[in-house]
Amino acid sequence: MKKIKTLPNRTITRLSLYYQLLLKPQEREFISSKEIADQLGFSSEIVRKDLTLLGQLGIPKKGYKIKNLLERISIVLGLNKTWNVIIVGCGKLGSALMKYPGFREHKFNIIAGFDISKKIINKKINGIKIYHLNHIKDFIKQNRVDIAVVTVPQEEAHRTINYLISCGIKGILNFTPTVVNSTKEDVKILKIDLTVEFLRLACILNTLNKS
Amino acid sequence: MKKIKTLPNRTITRLSLYYQLLLKPQEREFISSKEIADQLGFSSEIVRKDLTLLGQLGIPKKGYKIKNLLERISIVLGLNKTWNVIIVGCGKLGSALMKYPGFREHKFNIIAGFDISKKIINKKINGIKIYHLNHIKDFIKQNRVDIAVVTVPQEEAHRTINYLISCGIKGILNFTPTVVNSTKEDVKILKIDLTVEFLRLACILNTLNKS
DNA sequence: CCTTGTGAAGTTATTCACAGCA
DNA sequence: TGCTGTGAATAACTTCACAAGG
């Protein structure tokens, strides 16, 4: 085999964007690196560098065959399989995510929610059943869970994530402001902090106004 | 004055994290770069490099005075003022954001929502009134709007964002999967795509399992 | 001694420049 | 000519190594 090298982080992010772009119905069969680049605001060189990491897919003069690109990217991103997702913490954000239609399209199946509030346990949100947090361990034994989305209150985040790791979860999407680093090599934690994005935008606007 | 240099992007992101960390009630008056670094999973050098960009705040042997750090970072991030935010598109994600308590703490005031569905126009979500999209221009004339959060359906994203720019909005937080680049130098668009984060995590897990 | 601040070295990511091919 | 693929140059970012200071 040629290269099992893991892709650079930035490349992965950009591949996700190429993928979403190419999913939109395209009139043409081929697309050039420059067209992709212009639509997403990157340079065409970086697009080509990214795409050559997937193998030699381009055809000089014509560009890249969209169908092939999509297939190749979806394999690399792991979208040729279905991912089972649980939502841990079914408050406002958690339940909004359970209703978010964008996931199923990409083969992310939300298979259960977990919470500690008696008010919602055993209820359903968007057809997805909510269980008590204590049931996670059993649930994981009986179901394949690939990704846990953590939307518990900040002060519970650390404990919850450690508990999830002890249950054997390998992929965690942490929506809380708390930073938790994975102690285990094979557990990956990605963090999304909406507040940080607001703070960043505020800072950028702030410097714009001053200059 | 010494330097009006704009801060590196990564530094801004990290400063936001330092800020959130330092906001938590701390027992001590001083904190060292190493303590910050360990809690957030960075190196202590990078923390010091970031913090020296704010001026010489550190005291050898003691560390950084938390109160001073918070004050300095909040000035740089622009949190010494209040930011007025509108939510454009009050569907599931938009209304979840309107209920999200994390913003007000950082002086982000959601002052209005906008949508085109008659079902919700003139209603209130979490005490915030929803107006018809057509009223944005007037609204902006009568109210200072610093940041527009775009949570409209994907196919409306491009048009909506261009419309917001034409209305004079300078800061946009784009939650749709559509990439829209700012045509104007002084308009900043930040993009948050939840699906991309899922795709990234899937890809990382995917490569983990293969190796 | 402990912790900051910082030049130098090292690493990673991006752009430049151009060969090669349909 | 138009577009890919890629080595070389450049830029951005991080780590290393250590001087300085309470």
Walkthrough of the structure:
Two copies of one chain form a homodimer. Chain A has 211 residues and is α/β, with parallel strands linked by helices. Chain A is 44% helix and 19% strand. Chain A contains nine helices and ten strands. Chain A has helices at residues 9-23, 33-40, 44-52, 66-76, 92-99, 102-105, 136-142, 154-166, 194-210; strands spanning 30-31, 58-59, 63-65, 83-88, 108-115, 124-125, 128-132, 147-150, 171-174, 188-191. Chain A has a seven-stranded mixed β-sheet. In chain A, helix 1 (9-23) crosses helix 4. The longest helix of chain A has 17 residues, at 194-210. The radius of gyration of chain A is 20 Å and the shape is globular. Chain A starts with 8 loop residues before the first helix and ends with a helix. The model of chain A has no long low-confidence stretch (mean pLDDT 90). Chains A and B meet through helix 1, helix 5 and helix 9 of A and helix 1, helix 5 and helix 9 of B. Chain A binds a DNA duplex (22 and 22 nucleotides) through residues 8, 10-11, 32-34, 43-46, 48-49, 51-52, 56, 58-64.
Please give the largest β-sheet of chain A.
7 strands, mixed
Biggest chain-to-chain interface with counts: A-B, 61 and 61 residues
Order of SSEs of chain A, N→C?
HEHHEEHEHHEEEHEHEEH
Tell me the β content of chain A: 15-25%
Low-pLDDT stretches of chain A are none
- The oligomeric status of these chains comes to homodimer
Radius of gyration of chain A: 20 Å
Q: Please tally the β strands of chain A and state the result.
A: 10
Terminal Cα separation of chain A, in Å?
Answer: 53 Å
Helix content of chain A: 40-55%
The average pLDDT of chain A is: 90
